[in-house]
Amino acid sequence: MLRWIRQQLGFDPPHQSDTRTVYVANRFPQHGHYIPQRFADNRIISSKYTIWNFVPKNLFEQFRRIANFYFLIIFLVQLMIDTPTSPVTSGLPLFFVITVTAIKQGYEDWLRHKADNEVNGAPVFVVRSGSLVQTRSKNIRVGDIVRVAKDETFPADLVLLSSDRADGTCHITTASLDGETNLKTHFSVPETSVCQSVTQLEALQAVVECQQPEADLYRFVGRITVTQHGEEIVRPLGPENLLLRGARLKNTKEIFGVAVYTGMESKMALNYKCKSQKRSAVEKSMNSFLIIYLVILLFEAILSTILKYAWQAEEKWNEPFYNQKTEQEKNSSPILKFISDFLAFLVLYNFIIPISLYVTVEMQKFLGSFFIGWDLDLYHEESDQKAQVNTSDLNEELGQVEYVFTDKTGTLTENEMQFRECTINGVKYREVNGKLIPEGMTEESPDSSAAHLMTEELLFLKAVSLCHTVQINYDQPDCLVGDPFSHANGFSSNNMEYYASSPDEKALVEAAKRIGVAFTGTSGDTMEIKSFGKFEKYKLLHVLEFDPNRRRMSVILQTPSGGKVLFTKGAESAILPFTTSGEIEKTRLHVDEFALKGLRTLVVACRHFTSEEYDDVDKHLTAARTALQQREEKLQEAFSYIERDLQLLGATGVEDKLQDKVQETIEALRLAGIKVWVLTGDKHETAVSVSLSCGHFHRTMNILELLQQHSDNECAEQLRRLDRRIKDDHVIQHGLVVDGASLSLALREHEKLFMEVCKNCSAVLCCRMAPLQKAKVVRLLKTSPEKPITLAVGDGANDVSMIQEAHVGIGIMGKEGRQAVRNSDYAIARFKFLAKLLLVHGHFYYIRIATLVQYFFYKNVCFITPQFLYQFFCLFSQQTLYDSVYLTLYNICFTSLPILVYSLFEQLVHPHVLQSKPALYRDISKNSLLSFGTFLYWTLLGFCHAFVFFFGSYILMGEDTTLMGNGQILRANRQLMFGNWTFGTLVFTVMVITVTLKLALETHFWTWMNHFVTWGSIAFYFIFSLFYGGIIWPFLHTQDMYFVFVQLLSSGSAWFAIIIIIITCLFPDVLKKVMYRHLKPTSTQKSQMYSNRVVIGDDFIALQPLSRAKSQLNKIRWKGVRVQSAQNMTLLKPSGAQGRTIGTC
Predict the structure, then answer these.
(1) pLDDT above 90 (res 991)
(2) What's the CATH class of domain 122-271?
(3) pLDDT per residue as tens digits for the range 12-56
(4) From the annotation, which residues make up the binding site for ATP?
(5) 356 near 891, Cβ under 8 Å?
């Protein structure tokens, strides 16, 4: 019961040990001392709340916000002491904001619960009591044996016990986990692979010992102990034995596996991304402004309290005849009385803090984020992928980016590899029509035929065909279930397709196949190749998996003749230092030449083992792989022991094409004032070549290098030389190239000097970077004194740390999996979309929310300042100027919708102009629209307008009047009700109209919705006031406003006052805008005039969703541009691209 309560409240009991013991089929030891470990059930919980904790948890999160907490305090003060306004005036807006937010978050969580229930209720089959039983997914327990059929997803993390194949293997895809669509082979241990029936599995006695759950998808350490005939057999378990929840079974009829991690302890669940905790610069500014307004509020409250006591120092005002003090008031403590008055004034002025600001900002961000997904220009037709928003909290940050950090492979390039050249035994070759042609020869040369390949060339091609983890998929769906070599006799290049997690591997295996050495499949531990028509079978003894630290992968094979050989391939820096024979220097030169051409290079080597050497190697690997503690470290030591004394065979050069419009995108970002840094793991020659071809480096740019530094002193001296060169040649642009090793030295002792050099360079290229180094570079810039806004963009798992570190993380939906996309704030299909995302959407989001924040503070200053001024005319008696209903509805109803619609649709400049003039992005950089100067302007404007509202009403309606005892005035021989509430209503009416029209003046892009909410809000105020004051409402115990509004509007002088005051407030604004636009226009204003004159022709781009696109087409027709009338209107794209049918217009 206690555990259930803890789970409902969101707590999880901690694990007691570092490893877990799982008894297969839950056959626990029979002795009485065994206490079963407790494991999580198999329910997936992606929801944030439960029925029991929703109210307290949601309220706690909402009241962590300073504005909500502040209004809660004000509400409690109103309940505890006698204050001039009803507690409803603070309580109702607070209740509204809290309720709206809670409903929104509750609805989102309900959707998550609904999705969870679908997953948890899915039918599954488990082995229990000697039979196959159907149950629900949530009922699976750790230790259950689960059956999964072909094309089904795994309901928990399972250790593979057996499959319908004799060798106990199965094929899976992990596309839903990491985006990789290739078939992966997973293995069972020999002792369990024979248990292919329920009866055999029920009799199986086995225990799995493994590590406790962790999020790493590619790491699993464990061992299985199988008891057969009283003897215990121990086998190691690794990632190749673990079937992850969410992966899908392919080309295998069925498998049986034992559940080791269930529910929220499965690796998929541990990789669920929590909502980003990043905060935008606008949000930080907003909080700073709130603190300033809090200080203003405290100042007004303290000043009013002091002035009240100063006024009451005179006897006649201390206790006037109409307000005699009670005995309790006379005997009360002066200090308590002062505090009580201070709190009363605090309540009276509390609306200067805009409570609805947060909820409006939330709605604006949430609704505004849909425009990114709807944008047709961010849709990639080939992959059928649209832009994706993972967090809407950072929309405006897209308009503030100063540094872009980008990966190279798969981000700037296509990650589609094509084999171009290779070097074998010191001789360069290129592929021509499926033949390897040596350098200097042509296809017609007599010695260029593939039949004349020497032993070295043949060994090189065999190494390329065998040293990989490529899988084969045939056109016939079930061919892999039987003999994978069944196609050998009728081998054809058309009936099989290679799948690989690395595009490099796939390109190399396909190239070897075209030349004549084709990999034809794997069966158990046997690999087969077809070498120029002759089939050869190799026994796969060991695979030394690739990892980022070693930067190489190897296989150990038994050749058809019985010999043992190791083939290895990897980066030249990871292979060449360990080679002892072969053409090392020639190969090094050729690798550098390939890199200068922009090719990705891999070096291939081998090592032949004697029987004694192989036995030693096998012993080292087995010991490392069966270790439960520090297995990774022991494996690294074993791999280093094996991968030495290598014979160099050659190297390959593979081309990775640039993505479309990369050069134009980088140039646009540069014109926008954004510095682009490329962070890549490639060698520096390749990286520099690609940087030059994509426009990151210009041909005229002076390239500075910080490479191969081996000591702190050497690194510091080189940095000083570079700094002097930059200062001496400050006229030309500089680019910096730095490698990972030198970067580590620079960041260790010379961080400040390194940053100085980098900031003075137009472009920076960091090569040979480890994933964590990428994140360190981003953090270095992010935390520098200038605090620039950073953006990181990448497509692979190695970019995740960089993406999470930057202020804004962009994932590219590429070919290296989906980890970058899952961990990003935004995801796009191609790098070229980054230009529009920043220059257009970023620009729009920033100006919208910046105006929203400033306008909110402005309208609240206008709202509460007359209340402060009114105290000077009522002896600081804390009398309210406005009716309590008006106090409550001002921010909720009368002025909320126009600014919300403005913040969703405003466009200062046409999107086409923003893209064609990237320099406009500079106008909004460094949070310029939320600078202290702009904030001060809006605040002072609010105070000025408030003074005009108050004193204008007072002067125009208060002269030559005779105030009667019954609150009426005699003027021009007619009676006009003009008491406290009439004056306050006049001020309120002028204020509502003025602040709404002020926003209308700020609006540049008018839609029907802007018109509807702007004029509709004013109309709603008048209609509401007429109904509220024109009817006696039985549920209101006092109705001070009865007939006040009707009488006010029946006065011509009141209408005259309203018009005069509004013109007085807004005319200076109009004059200022006209004068500035004509005498000193900004670049944005110039672009506005340009966009009004721009002629939209055949290169019109669909910049908005369907409804907006149709609207734009209607504008084009209105301007007289001829558009063909058709049922389906097609939007034409530039450069002759094919049009997109958007629907009937």
Answers:
(1) yes
(2) mainly beta
(3) 444 456 788 888 888 887 666 667 778 888 888 777 788 888 888
(4) 407-409, 505, 546, 569, 600, 680-682, 768, 774, 798-799
(5) yes
